[in-house]
Amino acid sequence: MSASLSAAFGLLLPRTRTSLWQALRSDRFLLAATLLLFVTACIPLAVTPFLPFADLGLNTASTELMWDVLLGREPAATYHRINWAPVPYWVGYGAACLLGQVFGPLLTAKLLTAFVFALLPLSTMRLLLSLGRDPRLGLWSFALIWQLNLYAGWIAYMIGIALVSIVCAWILEAETIADGFRIAPWSALVALTHIQATWLLAVSGGLLCLTTGRLGRRVLVHLAAGSGAALLTTIWLAGQLAGKSGPSGSFHFGWHSPGYRLSQAFHYVLDNYSEPFAERIAAIAFVVLVLGPLALTQLGQRPLVDRRSPLLLVFGAGCLYALLWWEVAGPINHWYTYPRYASVVAAWLLLIPAPRRSWAFTLSLLPGIGLSLALNLVAVRQFAHFGEQTRPFLEIINAVPARAKVLPFTFDDGDPDPDLKLPPYKGMYSYLTAVGHGYTPYLWNIPSHPFSNRPVSLPAPGWSGKFSLDEHGRFYDYLLVQGFQHADPVRNARSALGFGAELVLERARWRLYRVTKPGKP
What we know:
Elements: H1 2-12, H2 20-26, H3 28-42, H4 56-64, H5 66-71, H6 76-79, E1 80-82, H7 90-103, H8 105-130, H9 148-151, H10 155-173, H11 177-191, H12 195-208, H13 215-241, E2 252-254, H14 258-263, H15 276-296, H16 309-323, E3 327-329, E4 334-335, H17 342-348, H18 359-390, H19 393-399, E5 406-410, H20 430-436, E6 451-453, E7 478-482, E8 500-507, E9 510-516
């Protein structure tokens, strides 16, 4: 039986010339440093019940309700649906959905984040091996796990980018068209993870045709490798452009000038801290990550056949950053587009130097390793403070019965945070839905996602609309006000139909009201 399984895996996995596992086993320094950096990076996850990532709560709630929709459980089955088409985000949504059934939504969010913490550096090391570089260079990429994409909560994007590095490594080592087709299922996995990762794979795979052998043959090998991603992306785009899963109309683009893009490079990579000392650590780390690879080229270099592939990979990611739009609207809607590639450029700069293994090289890695550890420690303080601010919300969650319908109000999104640049609180309400499997009208409603809304929904005032107990509140079980120090539309709300709002709990920045029915206390 074991021989059969080995043969099956041999058919499914790409043929490779190098092994990251063997590299880690044979290099004690690499293994020890990797474990140290990973473990210390995970410590911040343990000091707070909620993670300070802006969109993570909304995604967590959506994935947690997928089983309810599948099994017909209310209220999710009435208001939401699962899109079974091959659309982006399926990898992240599917993994969170399955893990959530075992570990619950709050721990699942941390487990997926820890997975990203491991996958990003390891994928960089794997690509370094394929390029004939020393995988120890990948230790510096631990500093890049604390990038803006993480704080925005774009976990799926970060998984997709890591998968692109792995697929590019396999493409570099593929020798025949058959080898390319072995990679195709994995490129399809990229397409099911994030559309911007698919763009990166297409550009990178195309450019690598110029450096890996005879052009005609390499084009065929790379097309075979990318066929999985091409097929699934074509199906998704056809549905989008046909108006079956997205809004109709013509395309409209929003652009930023080249000067603005260059001036914001640090912001789009590591500018996640408000506290001055943490800002300085992040700024120094950014300078080291950008200029450090150039400095490492001054050490004794390995004799390499392929020196151009890393340059083309950096060039391709840089072009996506320099040439893509900020946002697009029309048959396909997307925003914050080009900034997401800034961290890819920073990570792939590590692919350029090829120093020989020596004491001088190992010592030269210590600044990057030290800064990665410093960022981990900064994150511990940052997350611990966020935990202090949000731990009272657990009491709010425990006060709401399972499957309750909750209408939230958020008034503190503009409040400055002493530690965080991105406002982390707006999506906190969605954790009520994630834990209680209830309903809120403000989850993502993107038709091309695996999880979206049905046409039916409960009335809601929107973020800037005027609240009414009779028009909105009476359809819900609870009303949640966040940032009541700024405003509270529920406290003095009156109903001509006899509905009321009873204060159940007030903790920190949250007030929870229970909606009372006419004639009932």
